[in-house]
């Protein structure tokens, strides 16, 4: 079996890195990727390793403390210690240090896209302006960096309309309401208005799974039509009490911005809605919970056009702040 090795910070994991790994593993039976990290970096080595494993489950990823001088000799020695008793047959890099690093380990060196022709990007360039070079990030890195925006509100208050419109405006993903499909799936059972706490827990889990699945396609932001906090409030509506389990899940997931749609137009029955008389009460619950939990929220009301104008202004402001923030 031929053994290959490559090394890097993958800080962050971009398409050039991905191309390197993809091409390297074609040429060996087994590829080992060394992820160098240290405590001063804002993204843990374990997270960067997960990004690589997500796209390349067939390679071996090893995290390495980055505590050596940036010189081929100490890193060649460290690499051989890590791989012991094996030795690499080929070392793959897109860097000038690659050839001496390989020679010191007594193996071949294969340069892959040294001039960055295939993917004109580097970690340094991405760190200088993450949003400008967003499309050069790998899908799992996009999911990690994307700002999450939650549109939530009571029935017939325009949440889905606003979420879809914002996704179209920003050319990004929106996350449908998982609980709606769950409700539709159970509507023909005996006593469909009788609910149990475990169902709300399943809805929360399903919502988060759907969000995470679509997040890898995000274009800087993710628009979610509801979240676990809304499910927590719906539990109160149907069971008459709060759920600590649902609340705990809601508390463990943060969004950069909440847009609370106001029920300021007539109730529209679409065949699934059943809380018309509670719209005002539940809207108050949403405000109370958002305040209690110190969530960054704004109430969005008026016509669709005015809602879009306000929402876009808020999101653009958020993106401008994040654009000027030193991410990495």
Please give a quick description of this structure:
By secondary structure, the protein is α/β, with parallel strands linked by helices.
Explain this structure to me?
The protein is of the alpha/beta class and 328 residues long. It has two domains: 3-136, Rossmann fold; 147-323, P-loop containing nucleotide triphosphate hydrolases (Rossmann fold), CATH 3.40.50. It has helices spanning 15-25, 45-55, 72-83, 98-105, 123-128, 139-145, 159-170, 178-186, 197-215, 228-239, 244-251, 279-292, 304-323; strands spanning 3-8, 30-37, 60-65, 90-93, 108-111, 147-152, 174-175, 221-225, 257-261, 297-300. The strands form two sheets. Strands 3-2-1-4-5 form a five-stranded parallel β-sheet, with helices on both faces. It has a five-stranded parallel β-sheet with strand order 7-8-6-9-10, with helices on both faces. Strand 1 (3-8), helix 1 and strand 2 (30-37) form a beta-alpha-beta unit. Helix 3 crosses helix 4, helix 9 runs antiparallel to helix 10 and helix 9 (197-215) runs parallel beside helix 11 (244-251). The two termini are 38 Å apart.
Which short descriptors sum up this protein?
single chain, 328 residues, alpha/beta, Rossmann fold, 5-stranded parallel sheet, 13 helices
CATH architecture of the largest domain: 3-Layer(aba) Sandwich
Please give the number of β-strands.
10
Structural class: alpha/beta
Report the β-strand fraction as a percent range: 15-25%
In the CATH hierarchy, what is the class of the largest domain?
Alpha Beta
The name of the CATH topology of the largest domain is: Rossmann fold
Shape: elongated
Question: Ends: how far apart?
Answer: 38 Å
Low-pLDDT residue spans:
none
Helix content: 40-55%
- The CATH superfamily of the largest domain is identified as P-loop containing nucleotide triphosphate hydrolases
Main sheet makeup: 5 strands, parallel
Question: How many separate domains?
Answer: 2
Order of helices and strands: EHEHEHEHEHHEHEHHEHHEHEH
Strand order of the largest sheet: 3-2-1-4-5
Rg, nearest Å: 25 Å
Mean pLDDT: 93
What's the total helix number? 13
